[in-house]
Amino acid sequence: MIRFTLGRIISGALVVFIVATLTFFVLRLVPGGPFDQEKVFPPEIKRNIEAKYRLDKPLRVQYYLYMKDLVHLRFGPSFKYRNRQVEDILKSTFPVSMVLGLWALVLASAIGIAAGIISALRRDTLFDRSSIFIATLGISLPNFVIGALLILVFSHLLKVLPPALFEDWRYLVMPAITLGAAPAAYLARLMRSSLLEILGKEFIRTAEAKGLSGRIVILKHALKNSLGPVITVLGPLTAMLITGSFIVEKVFSVPGMGRYFITAVTNRDYPLVMGVTVVYAVLIVIMNFIVDLLYTLLDPRVRLGN
Question: Which has the closest alpha carbon to 274: 91, 4, 40, 22?
Fold first, then answer.
């Protein structure tokens, strides 16, 4: 266990390092600069601004200074939001994105897994065909379309939910549904196909031949073995829902990290883009580590590190 944990920490740190390095150089190599959209400055003022943000130094020096700050969890000042450090922006916006992402994850997991199980157990019934159709629709519709429809129905027509901002739990309902719709549809299809595959295995028929009741066969044998693919997806899915709600936060004016990321990309705010990207990479590494641990609980035959 100790060797496995140390190996995961080293490999995770290497992944974050590679992601940070690639993002740094890609941002610098894209044509244009962070202050090209500003009004034309006199040369001396432009030089002062570049010196303030260390953009006047050679690229390799900028990279060294950035990685040195990153080791100390410093991302530097934002180019767009003057006099604000990127880590301060992340501290104030990450909790909002995390709450929204966790709400969406709970909804997607509960609805998706339950629908997938029922569809598999009632294969080729009306419920099964309807759930497949709804799942396909949920995957196909973009987030901004679902969000616009929810605002139209529940805010403008029924007037039961607020259309935007972030004040209490009512403001999270529609964004969470919008963000979790596609993952719920994907989990439903994945759970259905995985459970159907397990139900056709020989050990399931052996359990039934021993006289075990259908409920015990399903709960003790089929479900436990069919959750593997779902658990695998939930790791990166959690990180995606927490940090990847860019469009949803924009539609519902949620003051989360994704909303800042969009403006950061548009304004070439290098430090803020780097900060959000590194946070996303760290979450991916952490969730994949948790997934590996959960595998050992679902299947004792799985050995850590293999």
Answer: 22
Distance from C-alpha of 85 to C-alpha of 264, rounded to nearest angstrom = 13
3-state secondary structure 246-306: HHHHHHCCCCCHHHHHHHHHHCCCHHHHHHHHHHHHHHHHHHHHHHHHHHHHHCCCCCCCC
Whether 4 maps to a domain, the answer reads no
Q: 189 CB contacts (<8 Å, ≥6 apart)?
A: 116, 132, 135, 139
Taking CA atoms, 159 is separated from 162, 266, 293, in Å, by 8, 34, 45
CATH number of the domain at 189, please. 1.10.3720.10
Residue 12 lies in a domain: no
Structure confidence by residue, pLDDT tens digits, 48-103: 777 777 878 888 998 999 999 888 888 888 888 878 889 898 888 888 888 888 89
The answer to whether residues 252 and 176 touch, using CB atoms and an 8 Å cutoff, is no
- Asked if residue 258 lies in contact with residue 245, where contact means CB atoms within 8 angstroms, the answer is yes
Alpha-carbon distances of 44 from 17, 112, 302, rounded to whole Å:
35, 59, 63
Structural contact between residues 253 and 216, judged by C-beta atoms closer than 8 angstroms: no
Considering all CA atoms of the chain, what is the largest pairwise distance in Å, rounded to the nearest integer?
Answer: 86
Which DSSP helix (H) or strand (E) runs through 4?
Answer: helix 2-29
Residue 184 belongs to some domain of the structure: yes
* Domains: count for the chain: 1
Residue 179 sits in which domain range?
Answer: 90-259
For residue range 5-26, list pLDDT tens digits in order: 788 888 888 999 999 999 999 8
